[in-house]
Write a structure and sequence with these properties.
251 residues; alpha+beta; Immunoglobulin-like; 2 domains; 2 helices
Length: 251
């Protein structure tokens, strides 16, 4: 009879239960336990602190924003109404420009497409406003033949009181300036008829003022078209013909 108190020697005890059959092993010993698949540790969830907090409706903040928008709209409407009423009361009107005199000397156009000449132009400027004076600044003037640039000059700034008229002068000079052959031919044709027409443009920054109140400065555009000058075919001198020439004025 076997002594059960002595330790078991030989092969290690199987991990299988003792009741598992040992069929198929010729030695009668149980098969060794199969290797268990490696245990994969589960990754911990990411430590994400970007929690999405639900939006909380704030009645006080919403009411404040509505009142702010309403106040801004009301301010804009009141300001626009005040400006419009002032405009209706004052009724600012654009000044009137006209060319009163033109003196042309040493005018010559050579066959090599070079033009020379000196223009002295006198303007008459009228302020028709009863309550607003006009300040003119940054005044530039250009003389053209049709659309071809001939010469440019700058006129001194000046101010006009209400219901007043001013005279300003502009002096232009061109010395052997290149022009297209078509311009040479056109001027030659006009001189044969006795009159050469020039276009004169004036650009100025103007401000309308009354007392301590004034409008925003604007760019005044003046165009005097077809200013006829009778040019002598021998001396190259000429003067304005046909009387004063009214100019178009716009802003």
């Amino acid at each position: 009879m076997a002594d059960t108190s002595r330790p078991v020697t030989g092969y290690p005890a199987s991990s299988y239960p003792q009741s598992q059959p040992t069929v198929g092993n010729p030695n009668g010993y149980p098969y060794p336990a199969p290797h268990a698949p490696p245990y994969h540790h589960q990754q911990p969830p990411p430590n994400n602190h970007n929690y999405a907090y639900p939006y909380r409706y704030d009645p006080a903040r919403t009411t404040f924003l509505r009142r702010l928008v309403a106040a801004m709209i009301a301010f804009f409407i009141v300001s626009a109404s005040i400006i419009f009423i002032i405009w209706l009361v004052l009724r600012p009107r654009l000044p009137n420009f006209s060319v009163d005199s033109v003196s042309l000397t040493n005018f010559n156009v050579s066959s090599t497409s070079a033009i020379s000449g000196n223009w002295a132009v006198g303007f008459s400027v009228n302020n028709p406003n009863k309550k607003m004076s006009i300040a003119y600044d940054e005044i530039d003037s250009v003389v053209f033949y049709k659309s071809t640039f001939l010469s440019e000059t700058r006129i001194s700034p000046f101010t006009q009181a209400t219901r007043s008229q001013s005279s300003i002068n502009a002096t232009f000079s061109a010395a052997n300036s290149y022009v297209e052959q078509s311009v040479v031919s056109g001027i030659a044709t006009d001189r044969g008829r006795g009159t050469v027409n020039f276009n004169i443009r004036v650009l100025a920054r103007v401000g309308f003022r009354t007392g301590g109140w004034r409008l925003r400065r604007r760019l005044l555009r003046v165009l005097c078209e077809n200013v006829g000058v009778g040019v002598s075919s021998t001396s190259g001198s000429g003067k304005l013909i046909g009387g004063a020439r009214e100019c178009r004025v716009g802003i």
